[in-house]
Q: What sequence folds into this?
């Protein structure tokens, strides 16, 4: 990854970290820090901003990956349509609803419904799933279904869905087009604007470590999330999938990923930032590290066991018994002096 070299001393770093508003040059400067003491100071600042704006609560969101079919052909993703080696699956609406009940029974207040862009699940089917989950469980619902029609978004919001996660992945239009043969960045951003306009708590974010990505691109990703006033932002590392054209690209650098999360927390302040599953693939301590640099959300995977290994966006994805994992998470979170969120963890920007 191309990086500009910045020569900085401790005084300059303190000046930047204490600015009320960071510009793009400031963000680039922080992302390029290499001295371990400087990075530690950056992390301390991010953690203090997290505490000020989010408190000490860590919100758990239970994920159900209910389909690995996808109409798109993104170069980096193991679910891509051209991956004919992947055994495909779809979970029935009844099993999705039953899994949501298990998430609620584990004390988790948000259910995340995630899939590839699979139009097999028609508007009415998803609407009924949302309504049935809401009737059965006292939970918030996040949808992560890719780009769908605007009338679908509207109906799902009306049915009771609370949030929609649609990562922009990179704010570099040329890089976006190179990675997505059937999509355009402008269209994705139009979808994000619409989701916000109809009252969804909207989430976006990037992928760190994409080939050709620069530090300037990552700075633009953070600024784009600020421009769109996102309610949640995910900054996750690229991990190659063996069944894609990008199988030989090395995984993202853990240190750069953590610096990005820290800088994002300082810039974005009152957003939800997850310590992603992909962090645990880069490091066994990945999610704990994520919580130290500004994250305040973890999303345990409740996808039923017979499907879990087939949702292969990237290689070496960690799997686990979700109920036991939640108990382990609680112990880890308490050991850090943090606590488990007991409410639905809605947007920090307004009352829902």
A:
């Amino acid at each position: 990854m191309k990086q500009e070299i910045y020569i900085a001393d401790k005084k300059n770093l303190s000046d930047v970290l204490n600015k009320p508003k960071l510009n793009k040059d400031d963000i680039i400067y922080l992302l390029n820090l290499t001295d371990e003491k400087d990075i530690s100071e950056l992390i301390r600042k991010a953690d203090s901003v997290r505490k000020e704006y989010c408190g000490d609560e860590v919100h758990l969101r239970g994920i159900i990956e209910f389909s690995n079919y996808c109409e798109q052909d993104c170069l980096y993703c193991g679910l891509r349509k051209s991956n004919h080696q992947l055994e495909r699956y779809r979970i029935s609406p009844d099993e999705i609803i039953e899994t949501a009940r298990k998430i609620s029974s584990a004390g988790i207040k948000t259910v995340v419904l995630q899939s590839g862009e699979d139009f097999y699940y028609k508007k009415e089917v998803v609407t009924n799933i949302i309504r049935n989950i809401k009737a059965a469980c006292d939970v918030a619902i996040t949808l992560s279904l890719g780009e769908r029609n605007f009338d679908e978004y509207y109906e799902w919001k009306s049915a009771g869905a609370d949030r929609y996660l649609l990562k922009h992945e990179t704010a570099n239009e040329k890089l976006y087009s190179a990675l997505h043969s059937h999509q355009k960045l402008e269209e994705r951003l139009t979808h994000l604007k619409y989701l916000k306009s109809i009252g969804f708590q909207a989430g976006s974010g990037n992928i760190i470590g994409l080939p050709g990505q620069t530090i300037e691109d990552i700075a633009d990703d953070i600024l784009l999330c600020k421009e769109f006033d996102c309610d949640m932002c995910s900054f996750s590392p690229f991990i190659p999938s063996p069944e894609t054209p990008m199988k030989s690209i090395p995984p993202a650098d853990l240190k750069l990923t953590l610096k990005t999360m820290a800088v994002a927390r300082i810039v974005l302040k009152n957003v939800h930032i997850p310590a992603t599953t992909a962090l645990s693939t880069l490091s066994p301590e990945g999610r704990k590290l994520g919580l130290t640099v500004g994250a305040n959300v973890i999303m345990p995977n409740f996808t039923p066991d017979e499907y879990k290994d087939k949702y292969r966006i990237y290689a070496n994805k960690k799997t686990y018994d979700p109920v036991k994992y939640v108990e382990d998470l609680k112990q880890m979170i308490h050991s850090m002096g943090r606590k488990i969120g007991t409410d639905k963890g809605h947007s920090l920007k307004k009352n829902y």
Remarks:
- The chain has a mean pLDDT of 94.
- DSSP finds 14 helices and nine strands in the chain.
- The CA atoms of residues 83 and 223 lie 33 Å apart.
- The first helix runs from residue 10 to 17.
